[in-house]
Amino acid sequence: MATKLVMPKLGLTMTEGTIAEWKKNIGDTVVKGDIIFSVETDKLTNDVESDTEGVLIDITIPEGKSVPCGTTVGWIGATGEKINVADTASKPSLKNSVISETSAAEVGEKSVLVVGGGPGGYVAAIRAAQLGAKVFLIEKDKLGGTCLNRGCMPTKAMLHTSEIYEAASNNADLGILCSDIKIDWPKVQGFRAAVVDKLTAGVQMLCKANKIKLVTGEAKFIGPKAVSVGADTYSADKVIIATGSHPIIPDIPGMKECKAVIDSTSCLELDHIPESLLVIGGGVIGLELGSVYHRFGTKVTIIEKMPKLLPGTDIELAELLKSKLERQGLNIYTDSTVEKIESSVKGAQITVKCPNGYKVFEAENVLLAVGRAPVTKGLGFENTGIIIENGFISTNEKMETCVLGVYAIGDCTGKIMLAHAAMAMGEVSAENALGGNRIFNPAESPYCAYVGPELAGVGFTEEKANEAGIAYKVGRFPTSGNGRSLVLGETDGMVKVLAGERFGEIIGVHILAPCATELIQEAALAIKLEATLEEFTQTIYCHPTVSEAIRECALNADGKAIHIPNKKGRI
Ligand SMILES: Cc1cc2nc3c(=O)[nH]c(=O)nc-3n(C[C@H](O)[C@H](O)[C@H](O)COP(=O)(O)OP(=O)(O)OC[C@H]3O[C@@H](n4cnc5c(N)ncnc54)[C@H](O)[C@@H]3O)c2cc1C
User: Fold this and answer.
1) Residues 218 and 273 in one domain
2) Contact residues of ligand 1, CB 6 A cut-off
3) Which of 272, 420, 510, 543 is flagged as catalytic?
4) Which of 235, 265, 427, 437 could form a disulfide with 226, with the two C-beta atoms 3.0–4.6 Å apart?
């Protein structure tokens, strides 16, 4: 007589399960101990073995469908045997399915627990799953982390709409006359939200496709490789920590009491375009959001306490960008410190210590963009033995912490606080956790600022090369000498190439030009492949393109540029 297979009850709290995969097809022979199907619950995925033998004669529940425990999901019998309908209605039993409730730790060398579902964490989880591991990804908020929900992607959606608005408003010189241009702010916000929703749903789908078990909740470490999430505990052979970062809230007198003060997340979600915005911090986030609102018509003032904008980037290009932004109408004060914030009728009154005395500004909103701090407090790291330095998790270049089998990646390590760096670290950590031997080299990771024009770079800046005592030569090429940049109206940028003095190996490339964030990939590849100036200059570039400026720049390093006079020193 045919024996039915039922949805097993795998734990005290399990009431239903999903058929994740049928491991046998109808007609396949089944022997005792064969895995017939796998079951997914909200905690685990388990293989179900047969304790009988015969042929799989029917599958009543397809893959992907959830049913209550005890429901008949298929039948094993003799070839050609008919199923007794009365049996299908009879009370199900677990007798026919031998289940062992495995914990992640029991899965063996291939279980990986990832804490944090931002670009570092979800990429690590996918890579680990690709390598055959059983992966648990714990996320307390929304998949995609800062990058997809309140960072890279929503800002680029707003940036795009602001650029379209600006282009529609300011193209009379090109013969395009638009009138009555208006901003439908709820639609602008709707577009931003739709981009975020699409991308986070995409990550969700990728996790499902890679059979990653998603756990929603806040993980607290109870041991080096064990966490609690609410009442449940999870452990694994390897753990990857990717808890990210949060905005730094500086201690400025009056700031907490002033309702006009916002962070980057609220700045993306304002219910109207502010008439004026004072941005504290002239780094990437402050400049990006400042220039987005400037394009929408807000009066924007940037206050930066350091002498230059965009610390860490090429100083010469950062200075060029500053003067460009000032010409566009942004007010920029460097070497200036905000001393106090008070509420005012307009929003906020801000007292700033500038190089030549105190200045008082008023603005509808004040954006705090002074940097980001790692999320490492209150997570039970004291139970792990990992080392935290200045708040960041300490790792080596393989992304290993000092605890064997525990890795940390992304913003919480403070190596490079950018999404593509977090993703790269994610891949490295997953591969190393599963027997690989890869390293993450920060020197190969580009930086990018989507301002106007874009700024991007990779490798040594002149300042860093000088600090390191490296003998180098430098090529410069202004975008005013590049036909495509002229057509695009972006003639006040520059490309800079740094190459070793002796062998001409590329050690750094910095670009202030349209699409710099796309062009920089060529330079990143050149550095990765240890290319030389000659390899740039002997490559044929499409014309007209902005990328031709990179080749001309490499030519200029040896005094051979074609489209500018080759002067010694700066152009
Ligand atoms: C406005 C803005 C614009 C940006 N633009 C760019 C850009 O254009 N390009 C770029 O490269 N970078 C950009 N960044 C930076 C980028 O967003 C971050 O570098 C990147 O998100 C870091 O990835 P991560 O995975 O390390 O951390 P995060 O993205 O911060 O993700 C960490 C995740 O861990 C979760 N988590 C934390 N603790 C726990 C816990 N205990 N249990 C469970 N889950 C937990 C969090 O909820 C979060 O989802 C921007 C950032 C901001 C704020």
Assistant:
1) no
2) 115-121, 138-141, 145-147, 151-152, 155, 218-219, 242-245, 264, 285, 375, 379, 410-411, 417-420, 422, 448, 450
3) 543
4) 235
Residue range(s) defining the domain that contains residue 462: 453-557
Partnered with residue 374 across adjacent β-strands are 245
List the CATH number of the domain containing 78: 2.40.50.100
Mean predicted confidence (pLDDT) in 110-115: 96
Atom of ligand 1 nearest to the CA of 120: 25
Which among 279, 238, 255, 300 is positioned nearest to 436, based on CA atoms? 238
Q: To the nearest whole percent, how much of the chain has pLDDT over 90?
A: 84
Q: How far is the CA of 410 from the centre of ligand 1 (A)?
A: 8
Query: What's the whole-model pTM score?
Result: 0.82
> Which is the closest atom of ligand 1 to the Cα of 156?
8
- Residue 423 C-alpha to ligand 1 middle, in angstroms? 11
C-beta separation of 408 from 428 below 8 A: no
Q: Are 116 and 224 part of one and the same domain?
A: yes
Q: What is the DSSP string of 29-95?
A: EE-TT-EEEEEE-SS-EEEEEESS-EEEEEE-S-TT-EEETT-EEEEEESTTPPP-HHHHHSPP-ST
Tens-place pLDDT, residues 485-502? 999 999 999 999 999 999
DSSP states along 512-544: EETTHHHHHHHHHHHHHTT-BHHHHHTS---SS
**Domain contains 97:** no
543 flagged as catalytic: yes
Whether the pLDDT of residue 505 is over 60: the answer is yes
